[in-house]
Fold this sequence. Notes:
Layout: H1 9-21, H2 30-52, H3 59-80, H4 83-103, H5 110-141, H6 146-149, H7 154-167, H8 170-182, H9 189-194, H10 199-215, H11 229-235, H12 241-266, E1 294-299, H13 305-319, E2 326-331, E3 342-346, H14 347-353, E4 361-365, H15 371-399, E5 405-406, H16 414-427, H17 434-445, E6 449-451, E7 454-455, E8 471-482, E9 488-496, H18 502-513, H19 516-524, H20 528-534
Helix pairs in contact: 1-2, 1-3, 2-3, 5-10, 7-8, 7-10, 7-12, 10-12, 11-12, 13-15, 16-17
Amino acid sequence: GNKIEKKHGGTVAVIASLGILTESHFVSLLEPIILGVFSGYILKGFYKILKKYPKPGYEMLTNNIIVTTVSLSIFCILHTIFINFFKVPNHFLENLISKILIDKWAMFFTIIIEPLKIFFLNNIINHGIFSVLGMAELSEKGKSIYFLLETNPGPGFGLLMAYYYYTKKKEILSNAFIVLLGGVHEVYYIYVLKRLYLLIPLVVGSLSGMSLNYLFNIGLTGIASPGSILMIELMAPSKDRFFILLTTIFSALVTFFLTSLFIKKDNFIDSTKKQPIKETIPKKSIIFDGIPKNILVVCDAGMGSSAMGASFLRQKLEKNFLKDINVNNSSVGNMLENKADIIIIHNEIYKRVKENIEEIEVIIIDDFLNGKIYDTLIERIIKKKEEIERKNSEKNQTWLEKSNIKIGLKRVSKSEAIENLGQELYESGFINKEYIETMNEREKISSTYLESGIAMPHGSFYGKKYIKKSGIVIHQYPYGIDYGNNKIAYILIGVAVKENEHMELLSKLAQIIDEDEKTQKLCMALDDEEIYEIFDWRK
């Protein structure tokens, strides 16, 4: 509902769903899917009519009335008329599930669970299907084996330990314990996606673990999320905890043994050592030109692997003194709501959403803990930062030289002080001598005194033609210059700026003048280094 009509589609769908929930004792995912689409389109249609016949001033009233009316109308229709429409499929599903429960065929779901999981459908399987079935069984038996079908970390742990045994790579060992203890199963998907035949050890390992679960009549008292052995043990009845640990170890050992056989046969270990990093940016993707402020790591549900990847990248940025860059994680559904400069996304997920993110730089990865890809991105950011700093440094050196800073000058008249500024601008090669006269003319039109003891004399509009290059000179008068109207200026900044650099230089000056602490330092500085430090725009 929310995807079809962004404003209130989800709200209408929820209220409409109550028409089914209040009448049906068994609810599958069928109703929310149908009602979500139906409610969204109905509300969208009403809004289109409103746009054709607008009533200025009544928008809020009509919007609220339409949301309420549509919601309650769908609720009443479903509650009284169409409830039987859903009873037929519900009755079929209920009988089917009851048969599965009686015949204990549920463990064979693992044959399709593992293949679906590696394509990042694990959250849909667990929270969308088996959690619903588990809650239904929970009310009857007090525990349910359905909560264990997708969450068992044993097969993934066994597969990664087999990889580690033959490759001795520390990151694989780290990934193995992230699966076992952290419950982030997405970590091992990349290893299977590269060699799909490794699904066989996973399926057999998962099936062997589920067989023991049935043998010992094991179940959980609630949803184990994430699928960590710690969370599973927490959600298990006390008498089942030892057996759950046993089945997890058994499924890990079976997967380890079978994966080892495939690894030996494939003999891929030496061939993986010198593999180049895959192209991580789609050919049609734009490249963000600058230092990103927001980087978004995206996974299917926005909880497990993306949170882990975001944390990993955040640590690397901090080590490279790039703490100002925000790194967040998100689900696929919410990624466009986060205004990101760069999106990091898994290859399998990118295939599903690539049409929606054509205007943002996308970095495609196969492993959320692939440090090399993050290092490449950070190296690029550092180079860009150094380039910007170099350009700023060049401008800083062009606009202000230390030799153009004079401190501790004796008090003179206002006109003489402006004359001295203009003379130094001329001697430094910033202006022609005629520009000095336009500075005096400009001062007669209106005062160039700013605030906090700072004045910024500059030429008139017609004086621009006498500017050779942009630059500034700074004169400090500790005893002040009488600037008229009871204003005393302690710092005079003589400005000559080319038209194409006008806004940039003046905005930088404004940033300094707006900070009281900096203006006080300017007025009280005892050497030119202190003033130059304040005007160092590289910082």
